[in-house]
Amino acid sequence: MNKIGFNLLAWSASVEEDVFPIVDRLKEIGYDGVEFFYGSDDPELYKKFGQHCQSTEMKITAVLGLGPETNAISSDPTVRQAALDQMKWAIDVASDMGCELIAGPFHSAFATFQNKAPEDIDYLRSAEILRQAGEYADGAGVLLTPEAINRFECYLVNTMDQMKKLLDLVDHPNVQAHYDTHHANIEEKNIPEAIRKIAPQLGHVHISENDRGTPGEGHIPFEETFETLAEVGYDGWLTIEAFTRNDIGFANSINVWREYSPPWEVAEKGYKLIKRLTEQYNTQ
After folding, report:
1. Which of 118, 192, 235, 265 sits most deeply, having the most CB atoms within 10 A of its CB?
2. Xylose isomerase-like TIM barrel domain location, by residue (predicted)?
3. What is the pLDDT of residues 201-232, one digit of tens each?
4. Any bridge partners for residue 118, and if so which?
């Protein structure tokens, strides 16, 4: 059975105590868990956050991003090692706090481009680091799900074709695919075929509208998305990711310059959408 989650980035990139009441209200709405962003290097903050989530019986997933200094496809082996070290640190934090999954575009550095198309060596370098991270995560009981994101934020993995190419090279069961409806809307020519292609390796799904606002109020084809997810037997997380300018620093870092939808509207309407569509298609 699918679990329904909500990414806290709609409010904050932090896991400090001011987000605890948000976790509580999401629990009341019906969510099974919350997703946080690795926005701090203080392990104690994550432990306290994890303890609060456990006290409210809310499960946890996470999002990790890498920068140029921790780029897994760098030609510099010291930078690639830094990427692996960052992944291992995130895995340790996740294990300590009871977080079961780390998602995000950590196959390479966010918004870091080269003046060429990605080459086989780039995929091989990323796969080598991800395989080692997968082995480490396996021992910690944490699943890694690198994410395909759009061409304006990443150039290594934009589509499920590219994701499959990378994961086939990684060849580790603890490294699976992260599919995001927002990015797929930009990059995929055929949504059902993209999901079918990656289905055997699909480990995480973000439910996100085309404008990053309330799911169901834009033009993402959620009906065929949920129908295909049910068809392929996907039973993992369905986690809403929406963005606002509540956390100014984070919003500026990802080019969010306007408000899309109030976060509690996203949470309440988005939950109803997911419940309706999962019940509709999983019972057919």
Report:
1. 118
2. 23-252
3. 999 999 999 999 899 999 999 999 999 999 99
4. none
For residue 60, give both structure tokens: 């946890």
Sequence-distant (6+) residues with CB within 8 A of 57 are 27
Integer Cα distance of 237 and 242 in angstroms:
16
pTM (whole model) above 0.85: yes
Task: Tell me the three state secondary structure of residue 28.
Answer: helix
Cβ–Cβ < 8 Å for 57, 31: no
Gap between the Cα atoms of 141 and 265, Å rounded: 34
Give the count of domains, the chain: 1
Q: Are 274 and 240 in contact (CB under 8 A)?
A: yes
d(CA 155, CA 117): 8
Residue 57's CATH number = 3.20.20.150
Rounded to an integer, what distance in angstroms lies between the CA atom of residue 35 and that of residue 241?
A: 9
| Geometric angle at alpha carbon 247, from 142 and 7, rounded to 5° | 35
Q: Based on the number of CB atoms within 10 Å of its own CB, is 68 exposed (0-12), middle (13-18) or buried (19 or more)? A: exposed
* CA–CA separation, 248 and 87 (whole Å): 26
Structural domain span for residue 44: 3-282
